[in-house]
Amino acid sequence: MSPRSRHWHWLLVIPTVAPLLTPFANRIEPTLFGVPFFFWYQFACALLAMVVITVVYLATREDRP
Amino acid sequence: MTDRDVEVGVFLVLMAGVVLLGFGAARWRRPADPYHLEEWAVGGRAFGNWTMWFLLGGSMYSAYTFIAVPALTYGLGAIGWFAVPFAIVTTPLTFIFTTRAWSVARRHGFLTHSEFAAARFGSPGLGALVAVTGILATIPYVAVQLISLQAVLRTVGFGGEWPLLAAVTLISICTFRSGLRAPALLSVVKDVLLAWMLITAALMVAMYGGWGSAFRGAATRFAATPNPADGLLLPETGHLGFFTLVIGSALAIFAYPHALVGMLAAKDRDTVRRNAAALPIYCMALGLMAMMGIFALSRGVTPADGDLNTVVPRLIHEYFPSWSAGIAYAALSIAALIPAAVMSIAAANAFTRSLYRTYLRPDATPAAEAWTSRWVSLIVKFGAAALILAVDPAFSVDLQLIGGVLILQTIPAVFLGLLTAWFHRAALTAGLISGLVTGLVLLWDIPEVDGTGRIVAEHFGGSSWSIGDGRSIYVGVVALAVNLVVAVVVTLLVRAAGVRDGHDGTRPDDYHADAGDPYLQRLDELIDGLPTGGSGSPAHPSGGPSAHPPLRSPGQRVL
């Protein structure tokens, strides 16, 4: 892997830190389908993790024969 | 036919199917050399995307998780939700760290963290210590899976000891015959059943007024309890405890032997990386399960005999249509048996590779290794069963809690070791031992407090260490901090004293090796010339630890 493409790995900091921001997420409103923010925020984080990891994977994938 | 008959009938039919499938698994993608430990233990390192994804879900998201996490949200609300952020945090870390672990393990033929630690820091003693810690932490983890299984069996109506022993015997025979192939195949079945259970659960919530009314109902009930720590949000004083619990649990995932064994079965690096991207789907399933605890509370489901772990089985029994309940029970039972199988395989590998081959039989053939691992995995499973049958089951839950703190202490060697060989082997050993002692002393010091603040037991009352004014901190993280400080200070001291470093048996490019890597290819040709079963020890160019088992052909991928 080239050192350039490895910079993409820094994107992974986002889904690592986002689920840990519980003091910020510690609120009821806004609710989504009746679920308090504190709970649905983590579902959003899981989706974010999927998107970011997929992007990093596609960006750093090596072309192998 | 009564509802009860339908429930039990569906459950029994599904379980019988699972047993047949488990027995047949040995024939699935039949290996060239079934007596090789690599075939038995990591499925010949040839599992593709789908198999891997199911196997990881099967071994990491266990019945204990699906029963204990809703039990926590039922009892405490927001604090129980820690399991979801913790699961999410592990996925980007898996992308980076597990890929490195896969590569180095692939090139050296490692099956366990302990072998890696021994090679990385040039210290078989450190490897043995990591192996022993791993085994001690894993046995109670197997035991709590069996406790979950027993809770389900009891709800179905099979109380007592014999149903549990029968289930353990059957899964043991499956694993003994098929190795990692059995849990991998069963994981697919488990996920299908579990998906059905989650859909039923979601429909059930919608039928009873949706999440809005469930959360409002739970809020009313939390407000009525005297405990200030429960509720739908974290109390002001709860953030530190929550945060350290998330961090500690997430790191522990990278130290538990069973978490690695699943990943090593991947056929190449991209399979590991693609899996990391797909793993958050399991986090969402876990989140949905965790919210079932809130729903159960709002509906006023009461646990049997005050045991919160029966909340989910009771909820299923009372609210699911009977045939769906049968499916859900089968899903939970398989979800207990798969991790039990994978964990026992992992613990057995740690014993075989870092204790048996290092100290007892250095010249063990691959066939002898596979034989030893098979029998040790049996001992681990029946040991865990004995632990819950002979001793108070509550004791196993305590032990599992302790196990989590213990396994965290191997993080500097097995996790940070993936990035750096800076630490000195003596310092890591000293750090590990200080961490273990600190963790045990703090856990011993925590009294068990019931909901009203009354002390019901003097010692081992949880893993939250109180630091005054209502705040607490997860013991594992405190012990890990002590561990790291000791490791850094001792490394600096022994370097200053001029003590020689351990020999690092790995090279930087080992951490990026992939299937189809030219070095691996060359090695395979080398090994193919050796007689079958011979303890071929291909010399690594860097002169790493001797007696690596022959690496499997990377070309072996069939699906």
Account of the protein in words:
The complex is a heterodimer of chains A (65) and B (559). Chain A is mostly helical. Chain A has one domain. Helices cover 57% and strands 0% of the residues of chain A. Chain A has helices spanning 3-6, 13-17, 22-25, 37-60. Chain B is mainly alpha-helical and 559 residues long. Chain B has a domain at 47-401: Up-down Bundle (Sodium/glucose cotransporter), CATH 1.20.1730. Chain B has helices spanning 3-24, 37-42, 49-60, 63-76, 83-108, 113-120, 124-156, 162-178, 181-207, 210-224, 239-253, 257-264, 269-278, 280-299, 311-319, 322-360, 366-390, 393-408, 411-414, 425-444, 475-496, 518-528; strands spanning 448-449, 455-457, 464-466, 472-474. In chain B, the strands form two sheets. In chain B, strands 1-2 form a two-stranded antiparallel ribbon. In chain B, strands 3-4 form a two-stranded antiparallel sheet. The two termini of chain B are 42 Å apart. In chain B, 58% of the residues are buried. The chains are: A mainly alpha (65), B mainly alpha (559). Chains A and B meet through helix 2 and helix 4 of A and helix 5, helix 10, helix 11, helix 13 and helix 14 of B. Chain B: Residues 530-559 are annotated as: Disordered. Chain B: Residues 537-546 have a biased composition (Low complexity). Chain B: This is SSS family solute:Na+ symporter. Chain B: One of its GO terms (cellular component) is plasma membrane. Chain B: It is found in: Membrane. Chain A: The chain crosses the membrane at residues 37-59.
Feature tags:
heterodimer, A: 65 residues, 4 helices, elongated, B: 559 residues, mainly alpha, Sodium/glucose cotransporter, two-stranded antiparallel sheet, disordered C terminus, Putative solute:sodium symporter small subunit (chain A), DUF3311 (chain A), transmembrane helix (chain A), membrane (chain A)
- Looking at CATH, the homologous superfamily of the domain at 47-401 in chain B is Sodium/glucose cotransporter
- Please identify, by name, the CATH architecture of the domain at 47-401 in chain B: Up-down Bundle
Radius of gyration of chain B: 23 Å
Largest sheet of chain B: 2 strands, antiparallel
**Overall helicity of chain A:** 55-70%
- What coarse outline of chain A follows from CA principal-axis ratios? elongated
Q: What is the average per-residue confidence, as pLDDT of chain B, rounded to a whole number?
A: 78
Main sheet overview of chain A: none
Instruction: Count the beta strands of chain B.
Output: 4
List the secondary-structure elements of chain B in sequence, H or E.
Answer: HHHHHHHHHHHHHHHHHHHHEEEEHH
- Major beta sheet, strand line-up of chain B: 1-2
Largest interface: A-B, 36 and 41 residues
How many beta-strand runs of chain A?
0
- Put simply, the count of helices of chain A is 4
The CATH topology annotation of the domain at 47-401 in chain B reads as Sodium/glucose cotransporter
Residues in β-strands, percent of chain A: under 5%
- What's the structural domain tally of chain A? 1
* Ends distance of chain B: 42 Å
CA radius of gyration of chain A is 16 Å
Secondary-structure element order of chain A, N to C? HHHH
Keywords (chain A): Membrane, Transmembrane, Transmembrane helix
Pfam families (chain A): DUF3311
Protein name (chain A): Putative solute:sodium symporter small subunit
InterPro entries (chain A): DUF3311
